[in-house]
Specification:
With about 725 residues, the protein is an alpha/beta fold. The chain is about 40% helix and about 10% strand. The chain has a seven-stranded mixed beta sheet. Strands 1-12-13 form a three-stranded mixed beta sheet. Helix 11 (about 195-210) links the parallel strand 2 and strand 3. Helix 11 (about 195-210) packs parallel to helix 12. The longest helix has 29 residues, at about 500-525. The two termini are about 25 Å apart.
Length: about 725
């Protein structure tokens, strides 16, 4: 049996195993007692008791024991659990040295959820799924040995970063590293369809193949002609994008990873596409079943011109992709609508449809209230800040990937007559709390970049040649961050206050600087730069202008105190880096992206991504097991007041935080809005005499504010309803890291 589905099988089987033994364990009951106040206090000690009980009753009782490290490795090799080449790259003396180092670090999980998530989703198990074959140290060692590719010094450095939880590889990389029967090291992909049946057919096949691999797939449909457009001169013949959406949804449902989990995909459409209303309507609860898409995610690509038309309450024109491509000679997604809008309106050769811009804006908001969709990609913002030659036309299933693509041309035999470039996502995350405790910030980031570089260099998705080609040319990586709210609370800062915004800016400036340094060094070592480097803003030096003209270091005394002991690059340092990059280039086309961190946040005892927490005690429903409770990291009487729920925070503060990071991040960030169906007084004060209900106008204003502040994308809109439920909470498991 192929093991590309190993991750999903492991998770399901451990659930079955633990279910069998529930009557004999105490850890679930202990964990659930966290939610029962004692003398009006949260009994956090119960989580520590649950952790200890889990390690004793589950882990110790079900872990295979070996008399020596050599015996363990011999067994794993003999039974084909790990790759022989992995061990052959190192002397066993070094492997023992690596293990000695890891054991000396005295790693311990800090919560029941952290341990549970690791053993449920990541730990290697016997083929019959009855016993664990590794603990956290073993998984760290496998990652270090695998990503270092025989380099002993690098292996030690990677082990140092992961065991101290300064760095966490994305789930596909962390899970599969070193395993003989493994899945792909990346699990998120972006592809696009052109306006012909050959391309549409190839796109659907690609979606099937990528979904089979366990991948989440983003698909751009903007180039497809609208419903009613001509085919071979026959008016009214085209069916539009909605039937293609239905085909894609069925494809993801069919390629459901051995029945363990549905495939996952998102389709993107430009807001100026004539099918935009039917595109949005297909996600509505009351949509006709013939057109309704239930599991497919939706994203809207929004040029600046849309915001301008909204601002002036003007009509807007929707342009036929078929006629636009005939006039401009390139697919619709690659035409700069903001720049060409007036010319397109005046051109009689371009078929167009008139609507009210604010009507479309309200349709978007109403659907976001109802379903959490669509995602929003501010495509002109993304391209304006894009240092790479080419055009960004879409994003991925979690809306943080922003990379240039080029279209492919497919012939009647489904072969590529022109091989374009599509995208695979290679991600990892820094843990802000732990990174801020190291004086060797730059060395840590370089190690992370080198680990990610191994993944991109060894990723070879040949079932979709355009993705294979894009990865080979671009060498892209995406280093992000998690744990922001936890760090702020631990250091007595409120989420969204001035010092928290400044801290975020400085932190991501550091990530930007050191990833650039590392990429430049790797380019020198390999004597290779990414494709079209010479046409980039890095090559002409313009990318660095803002850093050599402004000092992005800490300004306030509080933020200076937080960064005490951490090297902050000066303007002179940036000038030198500019000269180095212009001389020797960069290996990676893209370096940074902030994903929604899922399971890896739990095992790192970190708050998710850059988001504020939802609850001080998070309640998570685990299939076949029940509810598990996760206290916010560093929660205590001392930090309690700094843990305000996302649903009680003005979302403009969230936008301000993300905007502070975005100015240093070359790709995008998964930014979620959290809205209540009833709004506490004082959160949104832009309308006197407002009701206590969240309105479409609230969302309209927030999206416009996000655009104004330079936000490239908006992920889900999560709505907390009166009956304590959430709308828009379909988790992006394939692309979250």
């Amino acid at each position: 049996m192929r093991s590309v589905f190993l991750f999903h099988l492991i998770e399901e089987r451990i659930r079955i195993m633990t279910l069998k033994d529930l009557k004999d364990v105490t850890y679930y009951d202990l964990n659930n007692e966290i939610n029962i106040p004692v003398d009006n206090q949260i009994p956090l000690s119960k989580d520590r008791e649950a952790l200890a009980a889990f390690l004793k009753e589950n882990v110790q009782a079900n872990t295979t024991q070996f008399d020596s490290l050599r015996e363990r490795f011999d067994y794993l090799l003999k039974e084909d659990y790990i790759e022989a080449a992995l061990v052959e790259e190192y002397s066993f003396d070094f492997i023992e040295k690596l293990y000695d180092f890891l054991k000396q670090q005295d790693f311990h999980f800090q919560s029941f959820m952290a341990a549970y998530k690791f053993y449920a989703q990541y730990a290697l198990k016997t083929n019959n799924n009855e016993y664990y074959l590794e603990n956290f140290i073993d998984r760290v060692a496998m990652n270090a040995l695998y990503f270092a590719d025989g380099n002993e010094e690098l292996a030690m450095n990677i082990a140092d970063e992961i065991i101290h939880q300064r760095y966490q590889p994305a789930t596909p990389s962390f899970l599969n590293a070193g395993r003989k029967h493994r899945g792909e090291l990346v699990s998120c992909f972006l592809i696009q369809a052109n306006d012909d049946m050959n391309s549409i057919g190839r796109t659907i096949n690609s979606a099937l193949q990528l979904s089979k691999l366990g991948g989440g797939v983003g698909i751009n449909l903007t180039n497809l002609r609208e419903a009613g457009a001509p085919i071979k001169g026959i008016e009214g013949a085209a069916s539009g994008v909605v039937p293609v959406m239905k085909l894609l949804e069925d494809s993801f449902s069919y390629a459901n990873q051995l029945g363990q989990r549905q495939g996952a995909g998102v389709v993107y459409l430009n807001v100026f596409h004539p099918d935009i209303v039917s595109f949005l309507s297909a996600k509505k609860e009351n949509a006709d079943e013939k057109i309704r898409v239930k599991t497919l995610s939706l994203g809207v690509v929004v040029p600046d011109k849309f915001y301008d038309l909204i601002k002036h309450d003007e009509d807007m024109y929707l342009f036929s992709p078929y006629s636009v491509e005939k006039v401009y000679g390139e697919p619709y997604a690659y035409v700069d609508i903001t720049k060409e809008y007036d010319n397109m309106v005046k051109n009689p050769a371009i078929k167009k449809f008139k609507v009210k811009a604010r009507n479309i804006e309200n349709e978007i908001s109403k659907l976001q209230q109802e379903s959490g969709y669509p995602y929003i990609v501010n495509v002109d913002t993304a391209n304006r800040e894009n240092p790479i030659y080419g055009k960004i036309v879409m994003s991925n299933l979690c809306s943080e990937i922003m990379q240039v693509q080029t279209p492919s041309i497919i012939d009647n035999k489904q072969n590529y007559t022109k091989l374009g470039t599509d995208i695979s996502c290679n991600l990892g995350s820094t843990n802000i709390v732990n990174m801020m405790q190291t004086p060797h910030f730059g060395k840590s980031v370089e190690t992370m970049v080198r680990a990610l570089t191994f993944v991109t260099d060894h990723s070879d998705i040949d079932v979709v040649p355009s993705i294979q080609n894009g990865n080979a040319l671009a060498h892209t990586i995406g280093l992000g961050a998690m744990g922001l709210h936890g760090y702020l609370a631990k250091n007595h800062l409120y989420y969204g206050e001035a010092d928290s915004i400044e801290f975020t800016s400085v932190y991501f400036m550091l990530l930007n600087y050191w990833t650039l340094k590392a990429s430049n060094q790797i380019a020198k070592e390999k004597n290779q730069v990414f494709h079209n480097f010479d046409k980039s803003k890095y090559a002409d030096g313009s990318y660095f202008d803002k850093y050599v003209e402004n000092d992005f270091g800490p300004k306030s005394n509080r933020v200076k105190e937080l960064f005490n002991g951490i090297e902050i690059p000066s303007v002179e340092d940036w000038k030198q880096l500019k000269a180095d990059v212009m001389a020797d280039g960069l290996y990676h086309q893209n370096r940074m992206a902030v994903a929604p961190t899922g399971s890896i946040s739990y095992i790192n005892d970190a708050t998710a991504s850059l988001q504020p927490i939802v609850n001080k005690i998070e309640e998570r429903q685990e299939k076949k097991i029940g509810k598990i409770y996760f206290p916010a990291p560093y929660l205590s009487n001392d930090t309690l007041k700094y843990y305000q729920s996302a649903y009680d925070i003005d979302m403009r503060k969230v936008i301000d935080i993300y905007a502070a990071a975005q100015q240093h991040v070359d790709q995008g960030m998964s930014m979620t809005f959290f809205m209540r169906s009833t709004i506490p007084a004082g959160i949104y004060d832009w309308k006197e005499g407002r009701t206590d209900k969240m309105t479409t106008r609230d969302l309209n204003i927030l999206r416009n504010y996000a655009h104004h502040e330079g936000i490239k994308s908006i992920y889900y809109v999560r709505t907390f309803t009166d009956n304590d439920g959430e709308v828009g909470v379909n988790q992006c498991e394939s692309c979250s890291i």
